[in-house]
Amino acid sequence: MSDDGKKWFKLNLNSKHKQESSSACGCGKTSGGCNSHQKEDFNEEEFFEAAVDASIGDERKKDGFDQVFDVKMNRRSAFKKLTASLLIGAGAVTTSCSVTTGKDDKEKAQIDWEEQFKGNYKLMTDDEKSGTVDRLVRSYQLRTGKTISMSSKNAAEDVLFGYAFNISKCQGYMDCVSACVEENNQDRNSQMQYIRIHEMDNGKGFNFNEADDNYYHEVPAEGHFYMGTQCFHCDNPPCIEVCPVQATWREDDGLVVVDYDWCVGCRYCMAACPYDGRRFNWSKPEVPEEEMNRNQHYLGNRMRKKGVVEKCTFCVQRSRAGKNPACVEACPTGARVFGNLLDPKSTIRWVLENKKVFRLKEDLGTEPKFWYYMD
Amino acid sequence: MRRLNVFASLVRDSLDIITHGTKKYHLWMAFLTFIMLIGMYCYSIQLEEGLSVTGMTDRVSWGLYISNFTFLVGVAAAAVMLVMPTYVLKDIDFKQAVLIGEGLAVAALIMCLAFVVADMGGPSVLWHMLPGIGVFNFPNSMLTWDVIALNGYLFINISIPFYILFRHYQGKESKKSVYLPGALISVFWAVGIHLVTAFLYQGLQARAFWNNALLGPRFLASAFAAGPALIILVLAIIRTFTEFKIENKVLKKLALVVTIAAQINLIMLVSELFKEFYAPTHHSESAYYLFFGLDGKTALLPWIWTAISMNVIATVILTFHKLRNNLKVLYFACGLLFVAIWIEKGFGLIVPGFIPGPYGKIAEYTPTGIEVGVTLGIWAMGALIFTVLARTAIEIETGKMRYKKKER
After folding, report:
1. Labelling B128: which of A134, A166, A333, B329 has CA 20 to 30 A away?
2. Which residues 128-147 on chain B approach chain A with CB closer than 8 angstroms?
3. Cβ distance A330 to A341 under 8 Å?
4. Is the pLDDT of residue A276 over 70?
5. CATH class of domain segment(s) B12-397
């Protein structure tokens, strides 16, 4: 199949050429426009400007003044912004320069300050990436006294992750769902789940309209079959195009990820996703300390903030360390297969070559890297 | 330096004007301030708790805020229906009304921006969107186009009236060579902001209800009906309460614009309904939900049928010259049309886009009190901004407020 003059994006697994997206920015585009080739160094003046603009309410230090200014934020009055930012800035400076505050408080304030004004992870150099990861680990330690490990491991070369789901095998036990929640530190209060298992009626085919994705009875239920959906990590994902700030992008190994600290929470990506693959933190996500998974990745299961979008990352903290995602490992029936699409010897390649596979909503041109098949 | 002095004096005089007035005026401003305070209080709760205090969920992730945003872009765009005849076609009738129209556009645009900010999960990191220090995903994201379009239009609609008023304030005539280029750009820009906003939804292959070539044109038609309808109502109020002279023929000409736009809008509605219901497909489910309900879920039915009936009644009234030329009837029809399009282009457009969900799940959406409070607060803010702008403009235009003329 020729790549030239193509009308839409085509995922070509057997291509002799490497995936084109290995351009430095990883946004999947070579035509520019993603601003990724610009350096993100702030000089002092820009930094001050950033401080002023961002000051529309620093959620971390909310004293009486901030609350007053926060409320008026939508007035967009330049004067108020300026005053509020100066207050926050002055506060941070006093905390970090004062001789009387404790050393830890100073360090915390310093970290908060640097974290508030850091750039987009996608555009960071490896040094900057490990810098922010170190800060986040240290900040967690200062706050809770517990240590976590956080990785900023990049995509490996010649890896393109893909997933296959055996409809014949799935019995709807939902072990994958709970394993996913535990692994990825999802908010427990809102019971956020990346995976949905749809219970379908035998004899009606793939009729999602009549399927139930929220069942509470013993499985496998008579006369039903099961089908799981989650983020399909499309090779031509509509969600990343619409993001106004490039807070979500396709990594070189095919994972579609979100920088939780860069996301502004507009939820345009949720509207653009045809697969219900994205979730929003409507309130502050909470995970009990003892249930926290401390093996984290910056792009994966580290703790999210209130008001940002998150999604399945094929457990980037596991998959980039050579392990299967938690859902694959938890599945008691072996219905889930995960692997490197570029490795001809991988199980996933065997499934794609030997089974009659299909994907959902292929007509939309999204090229999901998530296939369904039957025995 | 002299200009600065004039400007400072203008600001002082305007402050003087807007803080003095009749009892009714003070009551009106106090009322708006009260609603705004309620809105701010609601917003402070939303900031503290997160967007979980709204009715939005992962299944319906946009709601009342984005609905109002979409509708108000149309209201803002409608100012062009006054700008074009006045500045470009040299229709002298509109000269008085045009400043009011532009003031309305400014208020509507500020409300749009406020609604978008209210909808954001992280308003404190909005600087991520500023080109230069943040990342501006242009031209890929239609949202960035919209940011440019809205702010550009806001700039045009502030600068042109400001220039004209600034000249009149000093007792000078405004120079055509200065404002005409801006007016010409604003004509195209107005069409642009509404098309770009439509493309925001139209470009999503995930939502069949929006992914429809008629969406943009229909946005324009409904905007040019609802916007001028509001302007007619506002002019009628201004005529009653101030000495600002607005002739009947201005209202009648505007009514003609409203009529034609409403008729075109109705034709497009018929076309849409025909496509959805003559040979319904999987993609017609959202329309089914909107007009008839799905699986016993019928939250939007009362809204959309109210909107459609109001729309049809208003259009029929406007179509007959006899009825339209009776001003009382005209105001009634304009009111109906405005509310009808607010429902149709807000609620009736945004919410069904999410229902049923990508896998057929029908989860309904009802706004919460806090959401309604913030929304009312933003509308009150818009009304307040408009009142302030209109009052200043009227004082200057009627010649009461002039540089170095202290008689009050």
Report:
1. A134
2. 128-130, 132-144, 147
3. no
4. yes
5. mainly alpha
Chain B residue with CA closest to A275: the answer is B358
* Bridge-based pairing state of the strands A278-280 and A309-311: antiparallel
CA distance B275 to chain A (A): 20
Shared domain for A172 and A260, answered yes or no, is yes
Inter-chain touch B206–A274, beta carbons under 8 Å:
yes
Looking at the structure, tell me whether residues A136 and A284 fall in a common domain.
Answer: no
A262 and A54 Cβ atoms separated by less than 8 Å? no
Q: How far is the alpha carbon of A28 from chain B, nearest alpha carbon, in Å? A: 12
- pLDDT score at B400: 86
In which domain, by residue range, is A105 found?
44-151
Among candidate residues B319, B386, B289, B330, the one with its CA nearest the CA of residue B72? B386
CA-nearest residue of chain A to B351? A271
Say whether both A232 and A324 belong to one domain: yes
In angstroms, the CA B102 to CA A359 distance is 51
Within a domain: residue A2? no
Whether A125 and A228 share a structural domain: no
Q: What is the pLDDT of residues B122-135, one digit of tens each?
A: 999 999 999 888 99
CA quadruple B215, B218, B220, B223: dihedral positive or negative?
negative
Whether the Cβ atoms of residue B59 and residue A196 lie closer than 8 Å to each other:
no
* pLDDT value of position A56: 45
Chain A residues touching B113 at Cβ < 8 A: 74, 76
Answer yes or no: do A290 and A341 share one domain: yes
Q: Which residues pair with B367 in a beta bridge?
A: none
According to DSSP, residue A18 is labeled: P
- Number of structural domains (chain A) is 2
A interface test, pick of B58, B109, B368 with most A CB neighbours within 10 Å: B58
A-chain CB neighbours of B204 within 8 Å are 238, 242, 271-272
- Range A54-78 average pLDDT: 47
Q: Is residue A206 part of a domain?
A: yes
| pLDDT number for residue A16 | 47
ipTM at complex level: 0.92
Whether residues A108 and A123 fall in one domain: yes
- Closest chain A residue to B36 measured between Cα atoms? A72
Is the pLDDT at A166 greater than 90, yes or no? yes
**B56 contacts A270? CB cut-off 8 A:** no
- Taking CA–CA distances from A197, the nearest residue in chain B reads B359
pLDDT band per the 50, 70, 90 thresholds, residue A58:
very low
pLDDT band at A68 (very low <50, low <70, confident <90, very high): very low
Report the mean per-residue pLDDT for chain B: 92
- Tell me, yes or no, whether A23 lies in a domain: no
A66: CB partners within 8 A, 6+ apart: A57, A58, A84, A87, A88
Q: Domain of A339: which CATH number?
A: 3.30.70.20
pLDDT tens track for B53-70 = 999 999 999 999 999 999
Nearest to A279 among B58, B122, B144 (CB): B58
**A307 inside domain:** yes
Put simply, the answer to whether A242 touches B204 (Cβ < 8 Å) is: yes
Residue keyed to tokens 């004039």: B6
Same domain, A122 and A163: no
Q: Give the A:B interface size as CB pairs under 8 Å.
A: 197
User: Which of B260, B403, B52, B223 has its CA nearest to residue A286?
Assistant: B52
Provide the pLDDT confidence category of residue B97 given band limits of 50, 70 and 90: confident
Under 8 Å between Cβ of B225 and B261: yes
Among B141, B200, B368, B381, the residue to mutate for chain A (most A Cβ within 10 A)? B141
Closest to B14 in 3D by CA, of B399, B391, B408: B391
Alpha helices in A145-291 (DSSP H): 175-184, 238-242, 268-272
Q: Where are the domains of chain B?
A: 12-397
Predicted pLDDT of residue A62: 45
Same domain for A99 and A198, yes or no, is no
